[in-house]
Design brief:
The structure holds two protein chains of two kinds.
Chain A: H1 3-8, H2 10-38, H3 45-62, H4 74-109, H5 114-135, E1 141-142, E2 151-155, E3 158-161, H6 162-184, H7 186-196, H8 198-203, H9 208-234, E4 236-237, H10 241-256, H11 261-282, H12 287-301
Antiparallel strand pairs in A: 1-4, 2-3
Helix pairs in contact in A: 2-6, 2-9, 2-10, 2-11, 3-4, 3-5, 3-9, 3-10, 4-5, 4-9, 6-7, 6-9, 7-9, 10-11, 10-12, 11-12
Chain B: H1 2-7, H2 12-16, H3 22-29, H4 32-48, H5 59-62, H6 69-92, H7 101-115, H8 127-149, H9 154-174, H10 207-228, H11 231-241, H12 243-248, H13 253-279, H14 289-302, H15 307-324, E1 328-329, E2 332-333, H16 338-352, H17 361-373
Antiparallel strand pairs in B: 1-2
The chains are: A mainly alpha, B mainly alpha.
Chain lengths: 316, 376
C-alpha cells in the first residue's frame, strides 16, 4: 500500500485516468451498441479498433511522415490529424461492416444461438489480427510526432497536457453527438426500436438489417476515433494492440451497463480512474486486477451495471 | 427406415425429423456389449496413435512435422481434457465461461507451489502427492468464483469469468510468491520407473505423458457421461433450456450451476496438473487468455453438449495449428499462417454448421426449432 504516493500523485493519476477512460468509453460504444441491439458480444470489435490504428499510421505514411520526421507546422498538424481521424474512422467502420456481413449475417438468417455468434466472432478476430500481423511482420508501427506533449494547464502539482485535453474533449463531443443521433434522429429512433423489440420494429416498417449495419458502422467509427487517440497517447500500434484494450473496453461497457450509451461513458471513465488509482495504491502490476475486482464487486451489487442496461428504454 | 421403425419405434422420430444420422439409429440398436466392445476398440486405437507414423501411405500425412508427434499428441490430450471440462460448463449447463484457462492455471500453479524447489512453501512434495491437493484447490476456486457470480445472467458471467482468468494471470505476474515470468522450475515428473531404473516419465519422449493424459480422459469421460444421465445432468439440461421454467419445477438452479462450475473447474485443474508434470517448468506467460478462447472454440465447433463433439473439437484446435508447423505453403513456412488458417476454419465451420461438427441430438433439435423461428 502506497497511500503516500496515491495522495501525492492524485491529480496526475486522475488526469491520466480520465484520458485512458475516454479511450475505453469510445471503444466500449461498439460493444454496447451491438449488445443493445443484438444481445451479442461482438468479440471482433477489438480488431476493428486495431485496423483503425493501422489506417491512421498508413495515412500519415502516405503524407511522407514516419516516426523520425520533425513535428510539422500547426496548420499541417491539424490537417494531418483530421486525415488520420477520417481514415481510421472510415477503415474501422468498413471493417465492422465486413465483420457483420461475413460473420454475423449468415448466422442471423438461421437464428443461431448467441454462443455460435461469439465463436464466429472469435474466428473473425483471429483472421483479422493474424492477417495484419503477417502483413506487418508482427512489428510495432510507430507514429510520427504530430503533437509534442506539452503542459497546457497547471493546477497545483498536476499538469494537464495538450494530448490529454484533446482526448477527453473529443471523446465527450463524440459521445454527445452519438447520444443526439440515437435520441433525436429518425435513424436513431429505428435503432432504439430494434433494440426494444426487433420483431415489432420490423412490423412497423423498420429495416432490421439496415439498422444492424448502421449500429456496426457507428460502433466502428467510434472505435476508429478511439484508435487515433490511442496512437497519440501511446505512440505506436501492433497487430495485437486491440485484444487487451478490447477486454478492458468491454469491461467498461459492462461496468456502466451494457447496451446503454451513457453507461459506456460512465463505465469507461470509472474504469480508467479506478485502475489508475489502484495502480497508484498497490503498484502498476495490479492495475488489471483492480479493474476486474471492481467489475466483480459492482456486478454483485448492481447486476446490470451502474446505469443498468437497455438502449431502448432509457432515453439514450 | 422401415425396419428401424419396427425395431426401435421410440427412436424413429429423430430420424424422421432429420436430427439423427442413420449411423445413430444403427448404433443405438446394437447390443450393449457390442457398443462397449467398439468403444474399447476406439480407445485402444487412441493408445496406439503415437505409432501412426509408421503406417505406410497415410501415416506420414497425419503426423506433425514441426513438432515431434508424441508432444503434439500430448498437447491434444490436455486440450481434449479441457474441452471435456468446459463442455460440462458450456455444453451441459449453458454457462458461458471465457476464463477457463484460470482453472488450468490454478491446477498447474498448485502443483508448482507444492513441489517446485523454487517455491516459498518449500514442501518439495512429489507430483503424485500434489495431485489431489491441486484438484481440491481448483474445485474450491471454482466454487469461490461461482458462488457470488452464478446469479448473474449469461453474458455478465462471461465477462466475470474472463476477468477471473486475468486476475489469476496478473497475480501470477505481480505477486512475489508466484514468481512472475521467472516461474517455477524443477517440477517433478509423475512417478514410476522401468526395469532398468530409467523413469517412465522422462524428458525426451512425450509418449508416456500422452498415455497418462489419455487414461485421465477415459476416466473423465466415464464420469461425465454418468453425470449427464443422472439427476444432476437432467438439471443442467433444464437450466440450459429454460432457467425460469427449471426453477419453477423445483430444480435448484444455483446449486446445480455451482456443481457444473466446480466439476468443470476440477477437470480443468487436472489438465493443469498434467501440464505442469510434463513441462517441469511454468511461468506467468503460460496462461494466456487466448488459450481459454481456443478451448471454447473447440467445444462449440465440435458440438457443445456432446462428448464426442468436445473431443473432436478439442483435438482439432490443438492439432490443426501444430500440424501446420514446419509445412511449406507456396514456398513459405505455414507456421506463421497457422492461426490465420485456423480462424478461417472456425468461421467456415460455424457458418455452415452452427450446431457443430458432431452435435448432440438434443442440441441439434433445439437448433432446428430456432431456425424455424428465424425472421430475418
Amino acid at each position: 500500500m502506497h497511500f503516500h504516493s496515491l495522495f501525492q500523485n492524485f491529480g496526475e493519476l486522475t488526469v491520466t485516468g480520465l484520458a485512458q477512460g475516454a479511450i475505453y468509453a469510445l471503444f466500449a460504444l461498439g460493444y454496447t451498441m451491438v449488445y443493445g441491439v443484438l444481445r451479442l458480444i461482438n468479440f471482433a470489435h477489438s480488431e476493428v479498433f486495431m485496423v483503425g490504428t493501422f489506417a491512421a499510421v498508413l495515412t500519415w505514411g502516405l503524407f511522407g511522415l514516419d516516426q523520425d520526421s520533425a513535428t510539422p507546422s500547426v496548420g499541417a498538424v491539424l490537417l494531418l490529424l483530421l486525415a488520420g481521424f477520417l481514415a481510421a474512422a472510415l477503415a474501422a467502420g468498413i471493417m465492422a461492416l465486413i465483420v457483420e456481413m461475413v460473420a454475423y449475417r449468415p448466422l442471423r438468417r438461421r437464428n443461431a444461438p448467441p454462443l455460435v455468434f461469439l465463436i464466429t466472432a472469435i474466428g473473425a478476430s483471429t483472421v483479422i489480427s493474424e492477417a495484419v500481423g503477417i502483413g506487418t511482420h508482427r512489428n510495432v508501427s510507430s507514429v510520427p510526432p504530430l503533437i509534442r506533449p506539452s503542459t497546457v494547464v497547471q493546477i497545483g502539482n498536476t499538469s494537464v497536457t495538450n494530448i490529454q485535453i484533446l482526448i477527453v474533449g473529443l471523446a465527450l463531443v463524440m459521445m454527445v453527438v452519438l447520444d443526439l443521433f440515437i435520441g433525436k434522429t429518425r435513424l436513431g429512433r429505428g435503432v432504439r426500436a430494434v433494440a426494444q423489440d426487433p420483431d415489432s420494429a420490423a412490423l412497423m416498417g423498420v429495416n432490421k438489417n439496415r439498422v444492424i449495419s448502421l449500429v456496426f458502422l457507428t460502433g466502428g467509427l467510434m472505435a476508429g476515433i478511439a484508435a487515433v487517440m490511442y496512437l497519440l497517447k501511446i505512440g505506436g500500434t501492433r497487430y495485437d494492440a486491440g485484444f487487451h484494450l478490447g477486454i478492458k473496453a468491454f469491461t467498461a461497457a459492462v461496468l456502466g451497463g451494457i447496451g446503454n450509451l451513457r453507461g459506456a461513458l460512465l463505465g469507461g471513465l470509472a474504469l480508467g480512474l479506478a485502475e489508475n488509482y489502484g495502480s497508484g495504491l498497490f503498484g502498476t502490476q495490479w492495475r488489471d486486477v483492480v479493474a476486474f475486482v471492481l467489475l466483480v464487486v459492482i456486478l454483485l451489487f448492481r447486476p446490470t451495471g451502474i446505469l443498468g442496461e437497455s438502449m431502448g428504454r432509457a432515453r439514450a | 427406415m422401415i425396419d428401424q421403425k419396427t425395431a426401435m419405434p421410440r427412436r424413429t422420430w429423430r430420424n424422421r425429423n432429420g436430427n439423427g444420422s442413420p449411423f445413430r439409429g444403427r448404433w443405438a440398436r446394437l447390443p450393449r456389449s457390442a457398443r462397449w466392445a467398439s468403444l474399447l476398440g476406439v480407445a485402444l486405437l487412441a493408445y496406439l496413435l503415437p505409432y501412426v507414423g509408421s503406417i505406410p501411405g497415410i501415416g506420414p500425412q497425419i503426423v506433425t512435422e514441426g513438432i515431434d508427434w508424441p508432444s503434439a499428441l500430448f498437447n491434444i490430450s490436455y486440450f481434449v481434457l479441457l474441452a471435456l471440462g468446459l463442455n460440462v460448463v458450456v455444453g451441459y449447463a449453458g454457462l458461458l465461461d471465457l476464463g477457463y484457462v484460470g482453472f488450468f492455471a490454478v491446477g498447474a500453479y498448485s502443483v508448482a507451489l507444492f513441489t517446485s524447489p523454487d517455491s516459498i512453501l518449500n514442501t518439495g512434495w512429489s507430483w503424485l502427492a500434489a495431485v489431489p491437493v491441486a484438484i481440491a484447490l481448483t474445485l474450491v476456486s471454482g466454487v469461490i468464483l461461482g458462488w457470488p457470480t452464478l446469479r448473474l445472467r449469461g453474458d455478465y458471467l462471461a465477462i466475470v469469468t474472463l476477468g477471473f482468468a486475468e486476475i489469476i494471470r496478473n497475480t501470477a505476474n505481480g505477486a512475489e510468491f508466484m514468481r512472475g515470468d521467472r516461474g517455477f522450475g524443477g517440477i517433478p515428473h509423475p512417478p514410476g520407473s522401468l526395469g532398468d531404473n530409467s523413469p517412465i516419465f522422462g524428458v525426451r519422449d512425450a509418449t508416456p505423458y500422452y498415455w497418462l493424459g489419455l487414461t485421465i480422459i477415459v476416466v473423465v469421460i466415464i464420469g461425465v457421461r454418468n453425470l449427464e444421465h443422472s439427476r444432476v445432468g437432467r438439471s443442467w439440461l433444464a437450466i440450459r433450456e429454460d432457467q425460469e421454467a427449471a426453477e419453477m419445477m423445483g430444480v435448484r438452479t444455483v446449486k446445480y450451476k455451482l456443481w457444473a462450475f466446480a466439476i468443470g473447474a476440477a477437470i480443468g485443474g487436472f489438465g493443469g496438473v498434467m501440464f505442469a508434470g510434463e513441462q517441469g517448468f511454468l511461468n506467468s506467460a503460460t496462461f494466456q487468455l487466448l488459450f481459454s478462447i481456443l478451448v471454447l472454440a473447440g467445444v462449440v465447433m465440435g458440438g457443445s453438449g456432446n462428448i464426442p463433439g468436445a473431443i473432436l473439437g478439442g483435438a482439432l484446435v490443438s492439432y490443426v495449428p501444430d500440424r501446420l508447423r514446419g509445412v511449406e505453403i507456396a514456398g513459405t513456412d505455414a507456421f506463421q499462417f497457422r492461426m490465420l488458417i485456423f480462424g478461417f476454419m472456425i468461421i467456415v465451420v460455424m457458418v455452415f454448421r452452427p450446431q457443430g461438427l458432431l452435435p448432440s441430438r438434443r442440441r441439434a433439435a433445439e437448433l432446428a426449432d430456432r431456425a424455424k423461428e428465424a425472421t430475418a
